[in-house]
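re: that chain from earlier
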Amino acid sequence: MDKANSLKKFGTFGGVFTPTLLTILGVIMYLRLGWVVGNAGLIGAWLIIIISFLITLATALSMSSITTNIKIGAGGAYAIISQSLGLEVGGSLGIPRYVSQGMAVTMYIFGFREGWLSIFPNHNALIIDLVVFVIIYAIAYKSAHLAIQTQYIIMAIIISSLVVIVLAAYYGSMQNSTVDSLQWGTFTGSIENNFSGSDFWIVFAVFFPAATGIMAGANMSGELKDPRKSIPVGTLWAIGISFLIYMGLAYWVARSATSDELLKNYNVIIDKSFFPPLVIAGVLGATFSSALASMVGSSRILFAMGEHRVLPAGKWLSDTNKTGQPRNAMFVTGILVFLTMLLRDLNAVAPLVTMFFLITYAMLNFVVIIEQNLGLISFRPLFRIAKWVPWFGLITSVLAMFIINPVISLISVAVVILVYGILLQRKLTTPFEDVRSGLFVSFTEWAAKRASLLTHRQERAWKPNLLIPVSDPNAIKGVFSFLKNIAFPQGSIKLLGIGPKERGDELADQVSELSHAFQKIGVFSSWAVIRTENFAQGVNFSNQAYRGSFIKPNIIFLNMINHDSYTEGYDEIIEEAARLQIGVLIYSQHPINGLGQRQIINVWIRNRAPDWKISWDIGNLDLSILVAYKLKRNWDAKIRLVTVVENEEQKEQADKFMSDLIDQARLPETETAVFIDNFNELIKKAPSADLNIFGLDTNPNFEFMKKMGDETQTTCLFIRDSGLENIFA
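^ sequence. v structure.
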């Protein structure tokens, strides 16, 4: 059994919801919420809670959107940012965030120690820290599965602590409030500043770290059964439930204690509860759980950076044991936490932890802003959000940074920029496609030069760039709308006039007019004229020349209207297109029905028996589905995947194949139809559609292609991949 198969995978509840909820319901809830209400009053405290959770909610929505659009690997936010903006940007955030997450473990251990000393004041602080560290490290080192099981116990303790608070309310605790604690606060200050005064944003800065636990579940992305589903669902449920708990707890403590108690007694929630020992257990459980989640999560970030060779000794850091646990990354993380524990006081660097969280939030929102505005066809998230959401998350995250501590904010940003500069010099090899190529395309000559340095296949930045040979401009007018619907809005059309020398000027005028017509309806178009009487030779020479251009054609459009006179030429074009890795699209319009109502598109899939399995390369099918998806969006139509099999066993395999294909290719409103029949017989009674899309053979049979239009009574499209498209990108 290999490591991938032996790795324990987690569901939504255990892998995302539990660690996220427990990290949000932390020590600030128990030991500082009363002070927040005492300073800001109930209305002010509620406003602080709402603002804090709105910031994290916007980021959670952005994170949910992007995770449903990519196959996220290990590393949580680091993986998301790396796959969108490249390893340099991902690493520049991942490295400082990993270090700050290690510091967070130490802070949570120190928080546990303070809670313990409130019960046993004579115990040695260093010994408490070391014992807690050893227990946490042992659990995390053993396995993430054991860590999750431990958190279930802690969740039960925290729920019990909330129950005794509810019992306190039931038995009359909410009779001790004063007017100040229920209205807008007086912002008196704290014991530490001798109650010399405070303000709204200082109190906000104290509370806000309580809302920064939304990455606890996302950090486990590499060990989730279905991260695309679990991260959005688990994170958003955790935020919603924790928000209600904070709002209710603020109301309870405002009604249960006087202003003087709220300001001077950090243990007021403990003291006012029905059974204080259980709330103290909740404080210890919250800090222990947060430390455990941070220990497990930080090691996964380090493991992911090791996998991508962002750090030295990357191969060693990415090594796992037979159960898939990143033991080496855990070992390094343990050393980091132990060393930070020796500092004994992290107050000087503690704000850095919050700042790196906020920078990560800002970058996650920035990623979604880029993806939304580039308009790439590869951005097909199953969880869609309004365009203002990531902007709100980005702006509020940055504002929160500078409200909390402007100096530390600038230092944090400087650290990120420094790490980015270092990684940029290392010329990291990106193992996956990102959207930088789409950005480069948007930036004229500089972008073109920068994008040319990228060596990967640009699958995520794929757009339909059609080359349309034109010998009779009137024939193009008949398919003008169809071509527009394939190219619009982000694709392009290159019109290639082909005709004898004596027609050169006339043809140039006609083709130029067509190109201008495409531009007027929002499709980028250019044109050229080749003076030759050999149609196929003109097309092939042009394709060879276009190889050196920046925006090169990736689809040749051929019209079957005059196919009888071009049959031989089409063979040559298809053969040369295969050599140059250019897709081919042959259009056969039905003389009566045309494109019908443009409501249903059939995509025919060949019988793949006995290998009905989804893989990264699904053969001559990627371009067919991409074109169908473009038409679906522009027509507001439905796609139907159709195949014909020989028996019931193949039917079950085909049904599963198409279901998985729809899921992994992120194809909304897509139907399937699997028939046990003979293809030649079925085609006569094919499912009703306005357009049928078939695969194109290397050596096409034009009589067969014409027959398909007659049999289906529809317009047909015959498509051959270039080999460079990928519907899963």
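Residues 1-6, 442-446 have pLDDT under 50 and may be disordered.
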